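Consider the following input, taken from an annotated entry for Olfactory receptor (Hipposideros armiger).
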Amino acid sequence: MPGPPYNHTMETPATFFLVGIPGLQPSHRWLAIPLSAMYATALLGNTLIVTVIWMDSTLQEPMYCFLCVLAAVDIVMASSVVPKMISIFSSGDGSISFNACFTQMYFVHAATAMETGLLLAMAFDRYVAICKPLHYKRILTPQVMLGMSVTITIRAVIFMTPLSWMVSHLPFCGSNVVLHSYCEHIAVAKLACADPMPSSLYSLIGSSIIVCSDVAFIAASYNLILQAVFGLSSKNAQLKALSTCGSHVGVMALYYLPGMASIYVAWLGKDTVPLHTQVLLADLYLVIPPTLNPIIYGLRTKQIRERIGSLLMHCLFDHSNLGS
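Applying the prediction step yields:
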């Protein structure tokens, strides 16, 4: 499927054109199928998580509250990019207005910054629950939870606002074709007629500080959790805790590894790693975590699984009664 022609103007373009995955345009229609399925799964799973936790007064513990916020952020993160990606892959419609492009950029990158903070908060919650169970309610009070959530949000806003401002105020007087599936800031900044290095350097340093610090604290939390788990006398309790921790670590790896790889490859391996691989890495860390998070964090949790089953049965029986 050929991309739109290059547009050379002397004014800021009113519209950008997203090409999808450069070099894989013939496969776009096939890629749209699994992408649509993953997006539908992410929307359904995360909406169920938010609905069940919001409606059930017994699920108001810190772990469930953080999970509810994570599910909401996953919906925002996936919805910021996936519908447009599906449109590109299925119909070739890659046009996006200048303002919409930078709005998408802001929300998707702010959501990813919030996601890493929430993963850290959830790791801290598990640390307190397993290593200091007698002090759990005294440490994670509603005020502390609210403070952590507000801090995570403010950190994302503080990081993303200057980056969006720097990129949106660059002069765009050449090509308006973005070699990406969404308005990723480096891909957009490369089109500028001025040096994009300040914004790119800010992004690299800011992302590295946020992710590396969060990963370090998450690793420390799970290290202490594992020490406590191996100190348990019950083998069943050990296996159950290890299964839960292993699932959480797996989801985090699927989030952090493609995300950081896409950032560093854009800087260090841009001449050796094919462009379609770089774009695929950037796409994966926006699609896979929102799809898997409700399964790993939600449906594997007995209380949430039971509440979702009750909610679905209630809806089905009410629908049947109305039909009869």
